[in-house]
Amino acid sequence: MTWNETTRPQYRRESRHYARDLTDAEWALIEPMMPLASPIGRPRATKLRSVVDAIVYIGSMGCEWRQLPKEFPPYSTVQGYFYE
Fold first, then answer.
1. CA 16/CA 13 separation, integer angstroms
2. Separation of first and last alpha carbons in the chain
3. DSSP state of 8
4. Cβ(7)–Cβ(41) below 8 Å
5. Among residues 18, 27, 17, 67, which one has the least CA distance to residue 49?
6. Spatial separation of the C-alpha atoms in residues 79 and 4, rounded to whole Å
7. Using CA atoms, how far apart are residues 9 and 6, in angstroms rounded to an integer?
8. Please, are residues 49 and 33 in contact by the beta-carbon 8 Å criterion?
9. What confidence score (pLDDT) does residue 17 get?
10. Helix axes 48-61, 75-83, angle to 10 degrees
11. Tell me, what's the pLDDT at 2?
């Protein structure tokens, strides 16, 4: 892939906190595959997009669960979705 004036804006990720965070187009592909919230019990408080961003961060950085930065949901929440 060559970077030129046509392709560069397509892959620009300036609006996200980390460079590896999902773009809106990538999230639109992944969102339908995410588990639905349970109709019973407490409403979901965690945004699934931030969970996926955290999983991508751990995969790219190779860090441990407990070293997940504070900008992401708690590591136990991310780990639970990952193992699910």
1. 6
2. 34
3. T
4. no
5. 27
6. 38
7. 7
8. no
9. 66
10. 90
11. 66
DSSP 38: P
Q: Measuring CA to CA, which residue among 75, 70, 47, 56 is closest to residue 13?
A: 56
For residue 67, give every residue at least 6 positions away whose Cβ sits within 8 Å of its Cβ, in sequence order, or none: none
Dihedral angle computed from the Cα positions of residues 11, 16, 17 and 18, in that order, rounded to the nearest 10 degrees: -20
Distance between CA 12 and CA 67 in Å, rounded?
27
pLDDT at 4: 73
Decide if 78 contacts 55 (C-beta within 8 A): yes
Q: How far apart are CA 26 and CA 47, in angstroms?
A: 15
Question: Which pLDDT tens digits describe the chain residue by residue (84 residues)?
Answer: 566 777 766 666 555 566 678 888 889 999 999 989 989 999 999 999 999 999 999 998 899 999 999 989 999 999 999 998
